[in-house]
Write a structure and sequence with these properties.
binds (2R)-2,3-dihydroxypropanoic acid; 2 domains; 12 strands; Rossmann fold; alpha/beta
């Protein structure tokens, strides 16, 4: 039986399968393991099933036991793993695409709606029970028939587009490559992110975090957005330059922001917390039972296939 380290608790359905298939070291307390703990607990393991919160940079990868041959990430995003460093050491890296597309697209729409319809301020007023209905009370910005820019038109971006069409939105997108017309479904391609921003009354960030997308929304590029734009980020915190965004939210350039992901999460730039035009969630993108079971199964499938000597379909290096 192959030996694996599972860095966080899995749902019982997944845990049972892991224990049936592998000699697995579990993290019963479900605490966030430090890199040193991951290195020492995986000492004689053949693989690691980890979550996005576990960082595997070049240095950590260089300290992993030579017995470790696969890192199966329980997430679609794998910016927590230095894929090239893993490849140099002969370690396969896999992710869990497809299974969390719908759940994450739902959260993108929730962020857009929560931000644009002032859900955070609304909750505060409702809780205080002192609000007084009036014709101009907490007026939001309506999504219907507006232009939606989607940064990153992969599976999740396309699922956001599908939902946004229900609001009558005109879909624009920027992607490394233009999609075929059966995937575009009428969405308008922008080769350049700035040209997308110019059209984006609403902007949904759904691209992976890479060297090219880090701080893509910054002091210079935010200026390209229409005044009073609404922005939602369900991808990764690194894509927004927080200082520039906070400034734009204070000035009114950005009407409201919805965030599910943060730079250095779970920490959050304290200046954000002083702002009312912010709708926040604690990285809930894939957090439904069905999705989390499917993510676990996908990571386990990847380990199983790899240990059978085949290339897992989700191998990213
Ligand atoms: C992912 O899969 O990348 C999500 O952010 C995890 O919730």
């Amino acid at each position: 039986m192959k030996k694996i380290l599972v860095t966080r608790n899995l749902l019982p359905e997944n845990e049972k399968r892991v224990l049936d298939l592998f000699n697995a070291t579990l993290n019963k307390e479900d605490k966030v393991l430090s890199p040193e703990e991951v290195i020492s607990l995986s000492k004689d393991c053949d693989g690691i099933l980890c979550v996005g919160g576990n960082k595997f940079d070049k240095e950590i990868i260089s300290k992993l036991s030579s017995s470790v041959k696969i890192i199966a990430n329980y997430a679609v995003g794998y910016n927590n793993v230095d894929v090239d460093a893993a490849e140099e050491r002969g370690i396969a890296v896999t992710n869990t695409p497809e299974v969390l597309t719908d759940a994450t697209a739902d959260i993108s729409i929730l962020l857009l709606l929560g931000a644009s319809r002032r859900a955070y301020e609304g909750r505060k007023h409702a809780e205080a029970q002192s609000w007084n209905w009036s014709t101009n009370f907490l007026m939001g910005k309506q999504m219907s028939n507006k232009k939606l820019g989607i940064l990153g038109m992969g599976r999740i971006g396309r699922a956001v587009a599908q939902r946004a069409r229900g609001f009558g939105m005109e879909i624009h997108y920027h992607n490394r490559n233009k999609l075929s017309s059966d995937l575009e479904l009428g969405a308008i391609y922008h080769k350049d992110a700035k040209s997308l921003f110019v059209e984006s009354e609403f902007l949904s960030i759904n691209c992976p975090a890479t060297a090219e997308t880090t701080n893509l929304l910054n002091e210079e590029t935010i200026k390209f957005l229409p005044d009073k734009a609404v922005v939602a980020n369900a991808a990764r915190g690194d894509i927004i330059d927080d200082r520039a965004m906070i400034q734009a939210m204070k000035s009114g350039k950005i009407f409201a922001l919805g965030l599910d992901v943060y730079n250095g999460e779970p920490r959050i730039n304290k200046e954000y917390l002083k702002l009312d035009n912010l709708f926040l969630l604690p990285h809930l993108g894939s957090s439904t039972k069905r999705t989390r079971i499917d993510m676990g199964d996908r990571a386990i499938d990847n380990l199983e296939v790899f240990f059978l000597g085949k290339k897992p379909k989700d191998q990213v290096n």
